[in-house]
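debug: dumping io for the single-chain case to check the tokenizer round-trip. Nothing else runs in this session.
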Amino acid sequence: MPFRVEFDPSECVACGTCAVACMDQCDTVIGVDAPCRRIVTLEEHSGGKTVIRYASVGCMHCRDPICQRVCRQGCYTVDAETGLVLLDGAACVGCGACVKACPIGAVALNSAGKASKCNGCRERLLLGLPAACERACQNQAIRFRAVENGAEDNRETVALLSRLLGSGKGGRTC
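debug: decoded output
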């Protein structure tokens, strides 16, 4: 059954447990590997007031992923069983097209110069377990929700994150 990633910024308190859980799950080497999830602090100024918001940023596993469309090497696939966007890092040549294209900056080049991103904890989801970041989030700001027909997408969430992050990419979504 396909999954859709949902993120509710009003529930994120920047505790970082999602990022740490992701690094633990993926055996990320701090200072060497690019983490698949990061916490961003956002300041919004309006009417003389400053509002602080937080965002946990990682791959949203878009239904029609722009990273897949721009990759000339065919490194990205959408998993038929889970709907997750998977990356074959071994096939990556490090051109960075996917890094530049992602509207929320969820793809990075690792220390080997190859693309790196969240795999959605595919193995965990197939076992009926929550993704590591979802399990760790006390406020349930991150959710991997099973959808019946896979037709639902998360463009609104991606557009919101893109706007909050000020990506400068014209509010483009995947």
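debug: round-trip ok. The helical segments are 17-25, 66-70, 97-101, 122-126, 132-136, 155-165.
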